[in-house]
Design a protein that fits this description.
Distance between the termini: 26 Å
Strand order of the largest sheet: 1-2
Largest sheet: 2 strands, antiparallel
Number of helices: 7
Order of helices and strands: HHHEEHHHH
Helix content: 40-55%
Radius of gyration: 18 Å
Shape: elongated
């Protein structure tokens, strides 16, 4: 399940994507993202450390995206804050390890389903950018994906 941390981050980042040439304060982002300000400030610091946003201090300071919103996917943000997209470590591409209670990867009866879920989830989240969300084009992507 998506954490509150990732949900608030995505909401705030979509707000930044709506105004890519502007800096927005943490307080304003908290209002727009309907997020607790202190919690969002901690999230924004993490996103700055991971080079997703940049912050500037001072009277005209605030937060802005570090690069074009088209180049920041939902998958990247979720991985930064919540870790791998996979439901189990044995199907993770970035943090693979054998499950502790699994006697054999090759004969695991649930691994194939988890692999497919990971692939489907990654395909959607990798192609869904902050720009897509900011423009409100999400329904088109899901319609295209379901008709393919």
């Amino acid at each position: 399940m998506l954490s509150s941390k990732a949900r608030y981050a995505l909401r705030a980042l979509v707000e930044l994507a709506r105004e890519p040439a502007s800096q927005i304060t943490a307080g304003e982002l908290a209002l727009r993202a309907d997020a607790p300000r202190k919690f969002l400030e901690a999230i924004l610091l993490e996103l700055a450390r991971r080079h997703i946003v940049v912050s500037r201090r001072g009277k005209l300071g605030g937060y802005a995206l570090s690069r074009a919103p088209e180049s920041i996917s939902f998958a990247e943000v979720i991985r930064v804050l919540d870790g791998p997209l996979a439901l189990a470590p044995c199907v993770s591409r970035l943090a693979f390890r054998k499950c502790e209670d699994c006697p054999d990867l090759a004969t695991c009866s649930i691994r194939e389903a988890l692999l497919r879920a990971r692939d489907a989830t990654a395909q959607v989240l990798e192609t869904y950018s902050l720009a897509t969300a900011a423009a409100g084009n999400g329904a088109e992507i899901f319609t295209e994906a379901s008709s393919a």
